[in-house]
Amino acid sequence: MEAINLIDSFAEFKELKNIDRATLMRVLEDIFRNMLIKRYGTDENFDIIINIDKGDLEIWRNRIVVEDDAFENPNTQISLTEAKKIDADYEVGEEVTDEVKFKDFGRRSVLALRQNLSARILELEKDHIFTKYKEKVGQIVTGEVYQVWKKEILVLDDEGNELILPKQEQIPSDFFKKGDTIRAVVIRVEMKNASPYIILSRTSPVFLERLFENEVPEIFDGLITIKNVVRVPGERAKVAVESYDDRIDPVGACVGMKGSRIHGIVRELRNENIDVINYTNNIQLYITRALNPAKINKIEMDEENKRANVYLNPEEVSLAIGKGGLNIKLASQLTGYEIDVYRELETAEEEDVNLEEFSDEIEPWVIEELKRVGCDTAKSVLELSESELESRTDLEIETIRDVLKILRAEFE
User: Fold this and answer.
1) Which SMART domains does the record associate with it (predicted)?
2) If you average pLDDT over every residue of the chain, what do you get?
3) Which of 3, 133, 373, 383 could be joined to 392 by an S-S link, Cβ 3.0–4.6 Å?
């Protein structure tokens, strides 16, 4: 092809870029036909023969033989005199086929053709990557850290495609350096500046769900179903599971013998504390399980407003709330109910005073904040130190000191 083996060079490109044979042939033919239209005004009377394996391309033009005085269009017609120069047996009305040489198009046209072909194949490759990862949304992928920036990490998959792990999708204690292997779930794929933009996440509940599917064969096989997953990445998570086979203990299957199955997940999530809970339609029982390890005395339900008042012994309140309020927060998210915890006072503690009694001295929003962390009586507040109250609530230290002064005065 006049020393310009376009087909051969792009056949090699095809192997690198995973563009299938039929698609490449369609693109090649489309590019060449556009070139013919620009030069001759039409491509209808041309046949294009492509052989990718051999790196051959042939373009043949078909013209009708007409009388010399009827000759008008040199692209679609050939005069009888010119036809007989090719073959003396040609007659008017017959079709003459001759090959179009690339040298007839000129160097500039061939260069433009090459550029168009490169652009189209690059576009196809981007579409291929976009489609491939669109189908992988919600799946775990493994890649190699290529570049670490302040706001995101650039990850390369095994084909060299670029994936992005933003800072907000990283577990707070994550630390990666160039060359590390990383696992994350694909959460979003979009086109940005005409290129596929693939977003990964390690904080999504879906990531934890897929890790369970990988580690627990019963989940992968559909014998155990994950009903809900809530988590504070790197800190704590709650996973509700249900078994359709009475012979299978869903919690035991997920944890594994001596925690063998869940340990791998915990390590992947930077020692995130994972509570696996047996799902039930009995919402009171579900809330009780969700607040584990706290032992609950009774629950008052307000199903219309999706609220639950939980009563516990004083020593159980801190267990129900959890460090930083994580246990009660995740239990609320898991069950879909707003949960308030209350202390059940023993007889010896009946002289305790409900915080509501101090509404004339303590502002209502301060009382609500104290109740939010399980302190609904004067003594329950006084049992905690200033530093504990400051860490558990959103109150300023001055406000806490004022409250403690008022409450102490009540008992003095």
Assistant:
1) S1
2) 86
3) 373
Hey, which residues does 51 pair with through a beta bridge? 56
Cis geometry, peptide bond prior to residue 293 (ω within 30 degrees of 0)? yes
Distance CA 145, CA 152 (A): 11
Query: In whole angstroms, how far apart are CA 2 and each of 267, 360, 379?
Result: 61, 97, 96
User: Do residues 171 and 66 share a domain?
Assistant: no
- Residue 65, CB-side half-sphere exposure with 13 Å CA sphere: 19
| CATH at 20 | 3.30.1480
Task: Give the C-alpha distances (Å, rounded to integers) separating 231 from 210, 245, 329, 332.
Answer: 14, 27, 10, 11
Domain annotation covers residue 168:
yes
- Put simply, whether the predicted model's pTM sits higher than 0.85 gets the answer no
Give the total number of structural domains in the chain: 3
Report how far apart, in Å, the C-alpha atoms of 309 and of each of 239, 279, 319, 372 are: 22, 20, 16, 12
pLDDT of residue 4: 45
Backbone torsions φ then ψ of 131, nearest 5 degrees: -65, -45
Same domain assignment for residues 152 and 100:
no
What pLDDT score was predicted for residue 13?
54
Q: What angle do CA 321, 203, 307 make, to 5 degrees?
A: 35
pLDDT reported for residue 106: 64
**Selected residue with higher pLDDT from 228 and 13:** 228
Backbone angles phi, psi at 165, to 5 degrees: -115, 100
Query: How far, rounded to the nearest angstrom, does the alpha carbon of residue 383 sit from its chain's CA centroid?
Result: 45
E strands of 233-383, at which residues? 236-243, 273-278, 296-302, 307-312, 338-343
**Residue 92 shares a structural domain with residue 195:** no
Residue 15: pLDDT over 60: no
